[in-house]
Amino acid sequence: TKNLIVKPVTLQRIVVLTISGVIGITLAFKGLGYWALVTQQLVYTGLQSLGKYFLMPFRPSFDFDFTPVRKMFGFSSKILITNIISQVSQNILTVIFGRIFPVKTVGNFTQGWKWNNMASSFVSGMLAQVAQPVFASIQHEENRQLHILRKMTRFTAFLVFPAMFGLIIIAPEFIVLLISDKWIDSVPILQILCISGAFIPIYLPMQQLIVSQGRSDIFMWVNIAQLILQIGVILIFARQGIIAMVTAYSAFIVLWTIAWQIFTKKIVDYSFLALLKDIMPFLLAALAACAIAYAVAVLLPGMLLRMVVKILIAVILYVTVMQIAGAHVMKECIGYLRHRYR
Predict the structure, then answer these.
(1) How far is Cα 260 from Cα 199, in angstroms, rounded to an integer?
(2) For residue 28, what are the CA distances in angstroms to 23, 24, 40, 118, 205?
(3) What is residue 341's predicted lDDT score, i.e. its pLDDT?
(4) Which is nearest to 208 in space by CA: 128, 153, 268?
(5) Do the beta carbons of residue 20 and residue 43 sit within 8 Å?
(6) Which position among 17, 180, 193, 211 has the lowest Cβ density within 10 Å, counted as fewest Cβ atoms?
(7) Three-class SS string for 118-170?
(8) Low-confidence ranges of the chain (pLDDT < 50)
(9) Of the candidates 297, 320, 319, the residue with the CA atom closest to the CA atom of residue 308
(10) Sign of torsion, CA 155 157 160 162?
(11) pTM for the model
C-alpha cells in the first residue's frame, strides 16, 4: 500500500474472488448449505495470503526489533480501537433491530444494508489504497495537501453520487431480478440507506488526511462520538418503525460529514463552503439525471427492460451534463483511459 502497488493486488483480488465464488456456488448447488459459505471464505482468505506471498518481495524473518513497535504504539493503538469501533458501528443496527423488530423485518434490513454497503464500499475501496500513502508523502506541504484533498473529494463525488442515486432508482428491479420478489420489502430500506451510502465515501479523503498527519486521536474520538450519537438516534426513533429509524440514521450519517470537515479544517484550511463547492455540482447533476431516467422509464413493461433503460438514460444524461459543464474530473478520467488503452 505504501508503495502504491495497486494493479497486481487488484488483479489478484479479482482472480481470488472468481475462484472462491465459483467454488462456493458449486458447493451450494451440491447441497452443502452454509458450509458452502464457510468454504468460500476459507478459500478466499487462503488464496489472498498465498497470492500476496508470491506478489511481494518481502519475506518475514526471525530477527525481531521491537523499537518501531514501541515508537508507533501510541498512534497504532488508537487506529486499532477505531477499527474495532467501526466494526461495531457497521453491525450495531442489526444487533439493535434484532431486539426490537420481527425476524422478517431484520432480514429485509440486512438485505438493504448489504447491497448499499457493497456499492458504497466499491468507491471507498478505490481510494483507500491510494489516499493515505499520497497524503503521508506530502505531510509537511499544506497547500499541496489541500489541493489533493479537494481533488480526491471531487473525484469521489463524481463517482459515488451517480452510483448510489442510480441504485435508488433501479432498486425494485434489482432486488426482484437478483434475489426474487420475496425480498421486495427491503427495497425502501435499501433506497433510504443509499442516501447515507452516497456520503460515507466523502468522509474517506478527510479521514485519511487526518491519519496521515499522525492524528489518530482525532480519528478515534470522532468515530467514538459518531457511534454513541448513532446509537442514540436509533433508540430515539425505535418506536416509530423501521422506515423512520433508517431515515433518521441516514440523515445523521449525511450530517456527520460536517463533523469530519470541522476536524479536517484544524489541519488544512478546508472550509465548509469549499466542501459544498466540491460535492454539490456532482450531487445535483446525478440527482437530476436519475430523476429524469426514473420518470421516463418507470412505466415501461418488463423489469429487465425498465432497469436497463433507467441505467442508460441516467448515464447518458450525467455524462452529457458533465461534458457541458466542463468537469475537469471527467476530462482527466477520459484522458487517463485514452492514454492507458491506446
Answers:
(1) 12
(2) 9, 6, 10, 22, 39
(3) 46
(4) 128
(5) yes
(6) 180
(7) HHHHHHHHHHHHHHHHHHHHCCCCHHHHHHHHHHHHHHHHHHHHHHHHHHHHH
(8) 341
(9) 297
(10) negative
(11) 0.79
Listed in sequence order, the residues at least 6 apart from 322 whose beta carbon sits closer than 8 Å to its beta carbon are 158, 285, 329, 330
Phi/psi for 263 (5° steps) reads: -80, -30
152 burial level (CB within 10 Å; 0-12, 13-18, 19+): buried
pLDDT at position 193 is 93
Position 92, amino acid = I
Rg (CA), the chain: 22
Cell of 75: 498512534
Q: Which amino acid is at 289?
A: A
Yes or no: say if 226 and 89 are a contact pair by the CB < 8 Å rule: yes
Q: How far apart are CA 169 and CA 183, in angstroms?
A: 16
DSSP string, 314-341: HHHHHHHHHHHHT-HHHHHHHHHHHHHH
User: Distance between CA atoms of 228 and 271, rounded to whole angstroms?
Assistant: 26
159/283 Cα distance (integer angstroms): 10
Predicted confidence at residue 33, as pLDDT, reads 85
Place of cell 497524503: 135
φ, ψ of residue 57 in degrees (nearest 5): -75, -20
> 227: which 3 cell numbers?
457511534
Nearest partner of 278 among 216, 328, 336, 231, judged by Cα = 328
